[in-house]
Specification:
The protein is of the alpha/beta class. Helix content is 44%, strand content 15%.
Length: 367
């Protein structure tokens, strides 16, 4: 199989694409895979680190005022032409898009070249790019159980969100041992998403400053590059290297820390929530309000309704509320256990396999 994958901007679109690529490579030893992305998105670094080739195009997001949208339209046309050239040269059997505005011209170009296409939407509400790409895709794969999400139930399949193979078989106590964490104290992991989270970070700092001397738990904050120095300044005076508080810009082996965690404080990006569900972890969800279609809150509502997480809307968040919520949970192991179990029930297993199965069906249909 030769496959082109497109998904970019943030880790939420890139990691599912990598999980799909890994499944193709695992399934077919002679597989050839090419990514298409932008140099401005995180894919320019993450994809090569995962061992895959990538070609770059220039494309802007599908938003803005009239004149900005006009510029985007011209940019889209130019990107489609470049994608057609890249795809023609590579001659793939299938094209798979996992979201981010880069995936639209790739899927459209594939359609114009009569190459089978699959798109995958990670969120509970579809973004503008996915809505556009779905009109050209042969198969639409969704994470949440709503075949009418894009108005094309006849070509929609519920597959869940792909989770990287590195999340398989993780053992909480083994992860703690490998990371050198105290097995007798709860471990709390705080993740603001691949781009960081300014407001969440600020309230986390208030919470940490008010509780770190109690030494009741170990806590790790993943700050994101954009806000790292800001957090360090707010936590000045706290030993974040040797004490019970740690701050890191980014972590490559995040699966080990998630596996070790008793409680995860997170945004509501689809990839993070899928990983939390896959591991069966309790969480406190603080959706970002600065996302298209308010999709993070809608993602979070699914977990809240299932009693798999406590959700706090950002405008209601404070250090005090965070403190009260954390302590009420870590002092109630049974509640944590129930939340984790409920989260696990939201996970759809073998998502990457299901998506690759759909890709193979399209290829075989073309033969």
């Amino acid at each position: 199989m030769k496959a082109v994958l497109a998904g970019g901007g943030t880790g939420g679109h890139i990691y599912p694409a990598i999980a799909i690529a890994n499944e193709i490579s695992k399934r077919l030893s002679n597989a050839e895979i090419l990514f298409i992305g932008t140099e401005k998105g995180m894919e320019h670094k993450i994809v090569p680190e995962a061992g895959y080739d990538i070609e770059f195009i220039k494309i802007k997001g599908l938003s803005g005022n009239f004149f900005e949208k006009l510029g985007v339209a011209f940019s889209l046309l130019g990107s489609i032409v470049k994608c057609m050239n890249i795809i023609s040269d590579f001659a793939p059997d299938v094209v798979i898009g996992t979201g981010g505005y880069v995936s639209a011209p790739v899927v459209i170009a594939a359609k114009l070249l009569n190459i089978p296409t699959v798109i995958q939407e990670q969120n509970a509400v579809a973004g503008k790019t996915t809505k556009l790409a779905s009109k050209f895709a042969n198969t639409v794969c969704l994470a949440f159980d709503d075949k009418n999400l894009l108005g094309c139930p006849e070509k929609t399949v519920i597959t869940g969100n792909p989770v990287r193979a590195s999340f398989d078989g993780l053992n909480k106590f083994r992860c703690r041992e490998e990371l050198g964490l105290d097995s007798h104290k709860p471990f709390i992991l705080c993740m603001g998403g691949s781009l960081g989270a300014k407001v969440l970070n600020r309230h986390l700092c208030d919470f940490i400053k008010n509780t770190y001397k109690n030494d009741d738990f170990n806590i790790l904050v993943i700050s994101g590059k954009r806000y790292h120095e800001d957090i360090l300044a707010k936590l000045a005076g706290i030993d974040i290297e040797k004490g019970n508080v740690q701050v890191k810009v980014y972590i490559n082996d995040i699966e080990k820390y998630m596996g070790a965690a008793d409680l995860i404080i997170t945004r509501a990006g689809a990839t993070a929530l899928s990983e939390i569900a896959y591991l069966g972890k309790p969480s406190i969800i603080v959706p970002s309000p600065n996302v298209a279609e308010n999709h993070q809150e809608l993602n979070g509502r699914v977990f809240e309704k299932k009693k798999a997480a406590v959700m706090i809307i950002e405008k209601d968040l404070s250090g005090e509320l965070l403190e009260n919520t954390v302590y009420s949970l870590i002092n109630d192991p049974y509640e944590l256990q129930c939340m984790g179990k409920n989260a696990g029930e939201l996970s759809i297993g073998d998502s990457a396999k299901k998506i690759v199965d759909e890709a193979e069906k399209l290829i075989n249909k073309e033969l």
